[in-house]
Amino acid sequence: MKILITEFMDAPAVARLAAKHEVVHDATLVDHPARMIALASSVDAIIVRNRTQVRGELLAALTRCKVVGRLGVGLDNLDMAGCEARGIRVIPATGANAQSVAEYVIATAMLLLRGAYGSTAEVAAGTWPRAALTNGREIGGKTLGLVGYGSIGQLTGRLARAVGMQVVAHDAAMPAGSDVPSLSLDALLAQADVVSLHVPLLDSTRHLINAQRLAAMKPGAVLINTARGGVVDEAALADALTAGRLAGAALDVFEAEPLPAGNPLADCPNLLLTPHIAGVTAEANERVSSLIAEKVLEALA
Fold first, then answer.
1. How far apart are CA 208 and CA 214, in angstroms?
2. Which residue among 170, 198, 213, 228 is the active-site one?
3. Residue 103 a catalytic site member
4. Percentage of residues in the chain with pLDDT exceeding 90?
5. Is 238 helix (H, G, I), strand (E, B) or coil?
6. 228 an active-site residue?
7. Which one of the listed residues 22, 84, 138, 257 is annotated catalytic?
8. pTM above 0.70, yes or no
9. What's the CA gap between 205 and 232, in Å, rounded?
10. Which residues contact 42 (CB under 8 A, 6 or more apart)?
């Protein structure tokens, strides 16, 4: 059988697939849609990351395809109903990048609360901004509010408790016998020193964090989004940061990726931006790729 891989996949996992089937792997294919669509008509499986849109012309071209392997957990780049209608099985890498995302949340929370790690140039120049940087806050004793309490949210909560945080969560489908208090979203925003988002992008979650909810957050709180960009109203966030109503934010995901010129987040204070890499580390790449290779081979068998 034939497998098409349109973005980066760990080399040992690709070799494992190639030992059983014909593999076409080109990490730049996502940037050449015409060639990708031409190849798609002859494949039995396709493996993608978050940039490849399995919908429209690409989905229509997958006439032989039996399985889509998703090197990650978000599914908003896939037409799930269209895949189901064509009998195509979708396999995400559930849990394989959870450690990477959870560590990102704790690390950025520490950076934002302490507020002292952007002083290298000043210190090197002899400015010595010690007085200005003595009001940073410790993470111990603070409250982490998890909006979404699936596998990644739960692991993030465990890491947070290990560094002395209190943890609360809001999830419409809170797991039975949960180990953290379950709050309404409004109550969570009012209590949490750090709010971390872990929900999929749905009609019900688009701009879930808007101007009204940003205004309702606890004074001095920080916001971290590793979920999907559309969950946060970026213009409202920029206003909250500029006005000082929010102490800081870390965003790894955005409504448009890459960010377009003139976006409202440019030059915002107390803002950390990373290019959709919270779940991407050397270790996570290996786990994600290995899991998807295994599951795709099982599906093709």
1. 10
2. 228
3. no
4. 97
5. helix
6. yes
7. 257
8. yes
9. 9
10. 2, 64
